[in-house]
């Protein structure tokens, strides 16, 4: 189910259809251009469990499917940046041995291109917009007492992205397309700034290799996710997101658009 309301700068809600109507702004001074509001107002229609849902708990997925919820325009800024970047890069579609935005059984990978040095193989690429902090963590960079960058053994978790790209890989390989490499091509939002350089990030883009996971591990993850959501559709209840899915609880505090419905589900369960 798509979002129903937008949250205005004063914290009040307005139905999306009303906001987007001519002179429909309740504050008489739009918080963002109409084109921006239109682009963030609606989520994609439900097409079942897709590869990009990795890292989302079944409760979050279920509630976004059945619940009316509100979104804050400012929170969608980086998502818009990512979508627009993808659209621009997808103009290379089916040219120069590049396939962009090809639809597979489990979603729409960003790019598949010939492996120039591996005849008969392809490279699977996903574009991401990251902040320099995340890129530094992914690469395992930290400064020691001598102000030199060293490897951080506690680098950020990339498991959701690994699952996503490996799911796409399996789809392509089922079609007979052999994948030699997978990587994220990160476009760094705050690239070429002092703070980025202080973190060891001195470029505006970075290629990040994604490891190949066992097919069974990937299949088991998505099978469990799908069956859990299906169970929720039948019973109206599903367990809470685990620590990984909830970012150790941080996601529940201001980063989840269905948190109110989540709390209501728990309250109903307690009453039972």
Structural account:
The protein has one domain (43-271): Lambda Exonuclease, Chain A (Alpha-Beta Complex), CATH 3.90.320.10. The protein has nine helices and ten strands. The chain has helices spanning 16-19, 34-41, 58-66, 77-89, 132-139, 159-174, 194-198, 215-235, 259-271, and strands at 5-7, 13-15, 70-71, 98-100, 111-114, 121-130, 141-143, 149-151, 178-188, 205-209. The strands form three sheets. It has a five-stranded mixed beta sheet. A three-stranded mixed beta sheet has the order 2-1-3. Strands 7-8 form a two-stranded antiparallel sheet.
| Rg (CA only) | 21 Å
Average per-residue pLDDT, rounded, comes to: 84
Low-confidence stretches: none
Classify the helix fraction into a percent range: 25-40%
Q: What kind of assembly state do the chains in view correspond to?
A: single chain
Shape verdict? globular
> How far is the first residue's CA from the last residue's CA?
26 Å
Provide keyphrases for this structure.
alpha+beta, Lambda Exonuclease, Chain A, globular, 10 strands, five-stranded mixed sheet, three-stranded mixed sheet, 36% helix, 272 residues
How is the topology of this model organized?
Layout: E1 5-7, E2 13-15, H1 16-19, H2 34-41, H3 58-66, E3 70-71, H4 77-89, E4 98-100, E5 111-114, E6 121-130, H5 132-139, E7 141-143, E8 149-151, H6 159-174, E9 178-188, H7 194-198, E10 205-209, H8 215-235, H9 259-271
Parallel strand pairs: 1-3, 6-9
Antiparallel strand pairs: 1-2, 4-5, 5-6, 7-8, 9-10
């Amino acid at each position: 189910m798509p979002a129903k309301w937008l949250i205005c700068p004063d914290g009040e809600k307005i139905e999306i259809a009303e906001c987007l109507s001519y002179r429909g702004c309740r504050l008489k001074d739009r918080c963002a251009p109409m084109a921006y509001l239109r682009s963030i107002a609606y989520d994609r229609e439900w097409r079942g469990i897709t590869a990009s849902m990795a890292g989302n708990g079944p409760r979050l997925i279920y509630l976004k499917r059945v619940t009316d919820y509100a979104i804050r325009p400012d929170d969608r800024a980086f998502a818009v940046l990512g979508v627009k970047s993808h659209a621009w890069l997808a103009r290379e579609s089916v040219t120069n041995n590049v396939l962009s935005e090809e639809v597979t059984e489990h979603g729409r990978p960003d790019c598949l291109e010939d492996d120039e040095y591996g005849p008969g193989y392809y490279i699977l690429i996903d574009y991401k917009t990251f902040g320099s902090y995340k890129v530094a963590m992914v690469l395992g960079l930290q400064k020691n007492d001598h102000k030199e960058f060293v490897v951080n053994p506690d680098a950020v978790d990339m498991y959701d992205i690994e699952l996503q790209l490996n799911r796409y890989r399996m789809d392509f390989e089922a079609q007979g397309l052999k994948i030699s490499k997978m990587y994220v091509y990160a476009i760094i939002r705050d690239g070429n700034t002092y703070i980025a350089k202080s973190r060891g990030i001195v470029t505006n883009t970075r290629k990040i290799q994604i490891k190949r996971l066992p097919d069974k591990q990937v299949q088991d993850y998505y099978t469990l996710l799908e069956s859990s959501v299906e169970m929720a559709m039948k019973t109206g209840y599903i367990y809470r997101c685990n620590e990984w899915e909830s970012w150790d609880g941080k996601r529940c505090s201001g980063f989840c658009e269905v948190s109110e419905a989540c709390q209501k589900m728990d309250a109903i369960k307690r009453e039972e």
